[in-house]
Design brief:
Layout (H helix, E strand, L loop, with lengths): L30 H21 L5 H46 L1 H28 L3
């Protein structure tokens, strides 16, 4: 289904029918998982701040090690999510490019309709704005 340059072949991404959403994010790097990881990090930071006054040198070093490990895990999750989002954006750009090349008149029509509607909205907002200044 893919060509040699790892781009989907025409028709393989739903040009003729409904486009099916594709999730390229692993389950453990979704925003929900990352949000939980971030909240755990904040909870660990709060615990460390509360315990700082009562911790001895050895306990403080252990708490610091736990915090450093949690930070590393969170950083790795953010980097993985960023890479996944970049891959997804690249895939969507390739699909859009393929669609425009396969259906140029549809793409031109959509662009023209969008420009027309935007022009109507801007003209209407300008006419309302200028009538109030007289």
């Amino acid at each position: 289904m893919h060509s040699s340059d790892n781009r989907p072949e025409l028709g393989s991404n739903g040009f003729g029918g409904a486009v099916q959403p594709v999730s390229v994010l692993p389950e453990d790097t979704t925003s929900t998982g990352l949000s939980k990881e971030f909240h755990n990090l904040l909870a660990d930071l709060e615990d460390l701040i509360k315990e700082t006054t009562s911790l001895g040198a050895e306990d403080l070093a252990q708490a610091k090690d736990r915090l450093v490990a949690r930070l590393a895990t969170t950083r790795q999750g953010v980097e993985t999510l960023g890479l996944s989002l970049a891959k997804q954006a690249n895939r969507q750009a390739v699909m859009a490019n393929d669609y425009v090349h396969a259906q140029p008149w549809k793409a031109i029509g959509v662009g023209a309709a969008t420009a027309f509607l935007l022009g109507c909205v801007l003209a209407r907002s300008r006419s309302r704005g200028s009538s109030g200044n007289v």
